[in-house]
Structures
1.
Amino acid sequence: MVADSDMSDSQSARALAPRRHGEILRRLAADGTVSITELAVHFDVSRQTIRRDLKQLADRGQLELVHGGATLFEPTEAAFTERRGENAAAKASIGRAAAALVRDGMVVFLDSGTTTLAVAHALADRKDLTICTTSLSIALQMCRQPQVRVHMLGGEIDPAEEAAVGIDALEAISHFRVDVAFLGGGGLSPDGDVTDFTRNGAEQRSRMVATAGKAYFVLDSSKFGRLTPLRIPRFELAAGVIVDRRPQEAICEALKRKGPAVIVAE
Amino acid sequence: MVADSDMSDSQSARALAPRRHGEILRRLAADGTVSITELAVHFDVSRQTIRRDLKQLADRGQLELVHGGATLFEPTEAAFTERRGENAAAKASIGRAAAALVRDGMVVFLDSGTTTLAVAHALADRKDLTICTTSLSIALQMCRQPQVRVHMLGGEIDPAEEAAVGIDALEAISHFRVDVAFLGGGGLSPDGDVTDFTRNGAEQRSRMVATAGKAYFVLDSSKFGRLTPLRIPRFELAAGVIVDRRPQEAICEALKRKGPAVIVAE
DNA sequence: CCATTTATGTTGCATAATGTAACTATTATT
DNA sequence: AATAATAGTTACATTATGCAACATAAATGG
């Protein structure tokens, strides 16, 4: 005789409400916004259910409802999402490609910048990572992830980058042993150099290239051929350059000669 | 008919209660949630049994029951985001009182916490300030202000505070000469001590009290009489305690004896 | 052997969560 | 401004879960 009234209800484990809540908040922390329709599809529940979830979270003050979804009500993240608009798809794909190079348990350095931020997003549901960063936004977002340790490299904050620069940050870098570093850059010059806007930035990235087990530059295609004043010293020690589409042939060849691999996302 | 007492039936199926408990807790630690239906299937026992298991574990304080399963109860989870809402008016008035003590050109240290965040808000339109802070949110906010320099004290990020703690932050403090520091605290004990939750926090604040030209503790009235485990050493060197209403007479007198002034906002 | 305890299964009903549908409001498009 | 498309609301149906009471079966102890 089979027992069926209470036992094995033929039902494939609908997610628990707290599970949904957890993931909703994680997505929110990562992206700044969530959409009801997307979430409903993702969890395979009705939109009404998601609405009820969001209502609860909103009542607890964890998010703010907006038409079609919810946002963080932190002014901090808002500005962020705005800036991110350009090339968002390209950056997201670079982020995924970069995240594929990271295994659980690693120590990861994330530079400041919107492209490295995309890497942080792509690492959102990883477990057991240690993140080192100079970026305030990245630190704030990643520290909300469970099972992720975050080290903020301190120093004077550059308002344009919203990240620490200067001597303190430079020095702090040397304290860490990082497995893999993802660095931004101002441009990818026609002769295959990654260049930067400021002396401090270039020096900081240079040190990280030299220190990290593997260093990758993440650069979206808007940077191709762009010239900024400072070459990043020792750039050729980097393991690779992650881009959203293949750069001009001349650049590729120059890179090949120097050493770093060209990794085209997606 | 069958010998079954020794018959190791299909691996995890039909485990003893303590075995189930062990695995339940392991799963909980890994995923943050467990579902009754899933566990019942996994152990091949009835849902009622799992419910009884969870009830026991909940009675022992090892998890928190929710509809359909259980979660680990996270005191930190929403702590920061929730706390922000509480006592907002009181904190704002404390913020204004604190800001009144700051003159343009000063070097100001802002501790982590929601009350110090209110101080940051109150300083929003000041010119020519230098802000030092361990708080990610404060750094992010203040660096968007024109004519404000921000120094972020780096270190490991405590997710509950969303601020740097630990040895790096401690050390970084000593590099600065600050005119005025605004510090948070866990509680204001009946005998007029400001106390803290963690050793690191207490030490960090203690150093700041000793280092800063003037140090003020900002405490909303919910902290009055509250006991937290660690006294902040050298607290009596602080210039004052800024509160939103006058504390109990005993506390006021104890404070007077020790030295710090009591400043009631508004 | 029986009585007792302990763990588990079963059942029925109360409660809570989710789904559905009809209708209204908002946003986007022309 | 009119329209279509998308999202929000409300009310109610459906399903899943919680709970308590009782049933069953093995273990325990005399």
Note: Residues 17, 45-46, 48-49, 52, 67-68 of chain B lie near DNA strand C (CB under 10 Å from a C1').
2.
Amino acid sequence: MESHLLNAIHSSLHINQLRQVHALVTTKYQSLNFHFIRRLLNLSFTGYARRLFDQMPRQNQRLHNVFIAAYSRLCLNTEAIDMFVMMHRKNSLIGSFTIPPVVKSCSALLVIELGKQIHSLAIHYGFGSNLFVQTAFMDFYAKSGDLDSARIVFDGISVKDPISYNCLISAYSKTGDVSAARRLFDGMTERTVVSWNSMISCYAHNGDHHEAILMFERMQVEKYCPNEFTLVILLSICAKLGDLEMGLKVKKFIDDTNAFPNMIVATALMEMFVKCGAVDEARQEFDRMNKRDIVTWGAMIAGYAQNGRPSDALELFECMKHEQIRPNDVTIASVLTACAQLGSAEAGERIGSYIESEGFNSNVYVASALLSMYSRCGNIKKAQQVFDKMLEKDIVSWNSMITGLAFNGYAIDAINLFEQMKETEVKPNDITFVALLTACTHVGLIDLGLEFFDRMLSVHDIVPKVEHYACIVDLFCRCGKLNEAFDFILEMKVEPNVVIWGTLLSACRIHSNVELAEIAVKKLQVLEPENSGNYVLLSNLYANSGRWQDALRVRSLMRDEKVQKTAAYSWIELEDGVHKFLVSDSSHSKSDEICIIVEGLSMQSVSDESDIYVEFCL
DNA sequence: TTAGGGTTAG
């Protein structure tokens, strides 16, 4: 009967089955109590198990151990530590199996002092040279950022297994000490796939993608078979590099070896396509998955948002809600980016109230995206409200608000907000200065703009990038100081790009400066020979100055170089979608009606000075 | 002991 009952305990999956067994255990077979409680803990019924534990007259070491291990595994770290402390106070015998899980909970909660005390205790009990205990403390010190102590523990291990090595390799990897990690790896006599993965991941996380790929190749030469972890690490490298060619090779490897990649591999594959700009291929992977979790959904929605396809992002978000999957902070942040791109105040309002009602706005990512969305949809008041309510403000929150003010015409407020930011712990970055210089540009504050530009490096230690130079060029150009802009370009410490020359060229058109326009166009012809806009601008400029021959020459140059003039569309977004119009375009379904009304409008504007109110629906 | 999605600027 006893063995029959033990089988019943081990095979029970449902709480009701266990309750039936319980009645027998408590009355007749108390020796099975341990197995019963362990089964309950394995099935995560911690409360039920704990009530039984508390009712028992005597609890032995094994029983304490299974509780501490279960609590730690289920991330109930405080409970794990409390149980250990209770055990110690009751003078219960502590064993080597008691230590690793409680140390893990100390790492998770970052209770450093307690962890160190437990370490002394473990040595006192004579577990100082137990491999499992040593590995646990090594991991604890590594996670606490105390690599020196982790190393001392490692050096004290007499017979090191691959796990001890791997653990320290990944610790060095996290602190960026790649060479220390590599020395350990090279010193290993016996490696596992995990050792290779840890080393590849170490190079990848520290930016040395080339070396990561070399290690992957060497791993295969040495006959180690890559596993799913290896593939995910490689795919994330391809994603970071935007290397579609290599990404496709990894995909082929997966297709050849793994008929059904797991969810993490499939998500990494999607992410690789997304970051390489191949959104439709990413969607194919998404559609192919037979099971999707919130990370999958989130990756695809973000993929659309990051690749300028906001409508697809929102459509997929609706799909996700339809499948009863509750969005989290990550999905919401991407959806907000999509709304901001649409610039649609109505969609923005809708998602804004949803977020507030569901309580998502306490997350920094969500709050920054929300305020940014409001400001891009033109609702600066709402943006300011979100910003003011934020309890935690990071650099992105400040940048979003400064940018929002700058773009909505509140340049002085943007600059004042920067002054407020300087009073905080948050340090400005390159994006902060793009926003500040934009603000100066909008109100023509040349001197202040130049001062900000100088202070970037001298005070804030930020090297100006080409976009900062572009802001200054724009600042000069908008004030009509074209020669100063040109001199500034010549002295730039980075190579001027199309934005720089394009800004100068546009200013030349406005201020009819043919001489500088010719220089700018020459530069642009090299940088973007296919862009017809530059040729058109120059040709028009010649025509306006009466230089017809030159104007014709540019036009014929365009023909010779086969540069096509791209059509300029006007467009308007209404409730039912986007309506595009081209010159002489009659493709719109209500084209005739529109033409009649436009004609009427122009007739009236000639004959009648009074205000005209015309209602027309597209 | 090794693995996947997010916010700002251009």
Note: Residues 133 and 388 of chain A are 49 Å apart (CA to CA).
